[in-house]
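To assess whether ligand presence alters the predicted conformation, the chain was also submitted together with adenosine-5'-triphosphate. Input:
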Amino acid sequence: ANSPPPRCGRWGGASPGPGVPLNPPAVGVGCPGHVRLTHSVPAPHPESRSRCVAGRAGVSCLLRAPGRLAPRPPVLPCGPLAGRAAALLGGVAVLGAGAALARGAACCQEAASPGPAPAAPALEPDFDWAEFWTFLRPQLLALSAAIVFALGVALLNIRIPMLLGELVNVVARCSQQHLGNYLHQVRRPALRLLLLYSLQGLLTFSYIVLLARVGEQVAGSMRKTLFASLLRQDVAFFDANRTGQLVNRLTTDIQEFKSSFKLVISQGLRSVTQTVGCFASLYLLSPKLTGLLLVVMPSLVGAGALIGSILRSLSRQAQEQVAKATGVADEALGNVRTVRAFAMEDTEVALYCHEVDRSSQLNEKLGVGIAAFQGLSNMVLNCIVLGTIFVGGSLMAGEELSPGDLMSFMVASQTVQSPTPSLSLQVVRGLSAGARVFEFMTLEPTVSLSGGDQIPSHSLLGHICFQDVCFSYPTRPGCPVLRNFSLTLPPCKTVAIVGESGGGKSTVAALLERFYEPTQGAITLDGCELCTLDPSWLRGQVIGFISQEPALFGTTILENIRFGKPDASDAEVYAAAQLANADSFIRSFPQGYGTIVGERGVMLSGGQKQRVAIARALLKNPSVLILDEATSALDTESEQAVQEALERAMAGRTVLVIAHRLSTIQCADLIVVLARGCVAEAGTHAELLRRGGLYAELVRRQATEQP
Ligand SMILES: Nc1ncnc2c1ncn2[C@@H]1O[C@H](COP(=O)(O)OP(=O)(O)OP(=O)(O)O)[C@@H](O)[C@H]1O
């Protein structure tokens, strides 16, 4: 009855409406002087209040701490089939045949087992064999040895049924002819069998160890390369892909690929060798019985392939549904404070139950399919065993076949049939998982992380110009956010951008950080176009960015501050913290700078987090500082501490302030009102008030909204 609300668009931002560009001239200020920001009007803008709740949930943060999901335990290849021969001696060939299919069924079941949310791309990417080869090549020696050992096991599996037949013949002869020296007669074939079993055990141990090593090395390198590749991608890439999907590629997909790879080498190679070898042995044992098998086998394999493809598709649907359910849980748990704040626990539980129920239905359907497949296969395989005994018995009666040959035939024919169903399913799953991993591994970002010119620190002024910049987000190419936007930020001056929500203020900061490239126009730093400058130098040494919702990592305060400059000494960290007004509160903690801040800094207050973030930004001593609504999420008391820190931090730097609370930017050298993607008004606070335009209207509105 309580059908849950659709999830799409829950966190979606409003798209900008069509705007009329005003095309104002480029604006700037020239008078030098120290700037102090005041905070005389503490009343928050209503938008700021709403951000205070949503922002804490991490919805609008620019930086996110990477999620960590524990990988599933590795799946070892299935064991050899040698035990089956002994079982057959006791006349339980039926169970042996069923066991092989049960493994196939188990693989299907595992396929549908819960895991982290997988990616759901519209089109399945192709598997990149060339890329795969680069990971495999360093492991070639170990892999070759593993293959040789696995082939050795396969050859022994062909040979063992023959020896079993010989042993049965000896046993039959002894019992028929009542030979007294039974032990003497069976000793030789039994010892040979024992030797082969031992060798088979040793080879099996060796190839599994080697394959585990190769699998881990390949998977490890793939994980490292994929992670490095993901971190290199453009910010737009992260707009388009959910974190859960990306983490899934790093964990589940690589795990799946590794399991399939190992299974293909261990079982696939063995089964091909065994099938060819066993058919040859079967033909030598009895051409007539082999002919019978050849008539039945193709139809069995065909039917198996058909049912297998239906099961695979069901398995994929079930896996996607499980991922959907996991996604709902992931989102709710990740935003638990927002869920709590809105008393949405029951709705979230209902939503999760809905997805889990659908997943259970699909998995039950899959279970029915697997059961039918297994039941039918068991019946057919047992009929083959029965047919073999029936036809073989009549051949034995005509003395065309010995009991030992019949035994060998039955064991060898089971070896041929066993590995097929689970393997084909696993190969398909492994290839699609591998294709998803390689898809992002080979993706090249449009802006590389490093490379380009650097301005020597002694001549760096921090003079920034936006010249007729037009911009649309790559995920919304038809919606222009900035239209012929022009602005100059003179060195060591503070320029504030104000305007309606969604007007493009944060976008200006994102372009300056080169998170995105302008669609048209240019941005220059001291006359050099940003696109010619080294992005890692620009972000690492020139620009300090402090956002409304600072993203901290779940480690110590010291390490969080040092994130701004990894080679900074402890003394430098303490100095930055003092400048950021953070040193005293950090030292008041029992562990001081060694205090763990919790996931995304959850164990610190908003104001404390912000001051740690300011210290982190100041540690690199940036020439340009961007403050993106840095105090709007704070209460008056915290704001005061942060504001003091910011004022100290701004001295002697070019500063771009994005503000909602107009009270905080009254002393800026230049205030720019952004409307519909371009500069609608520009001037000092006093000038703009005198003009009585948009800015004056904003000030008036904020004043009346004060409690
Ligand atoms: N990553 C993104 N992908 C697509 N569109 C975006 C993205 N970020 C912002 N937008 C859109 O761009 C427009 C400008 O957003 P921006 O965040 O720059 O506005 P703003 O003036 O800073 O707003 P606010 O004051 O509410 O923070 C909005 O319509 C928003 O929906």
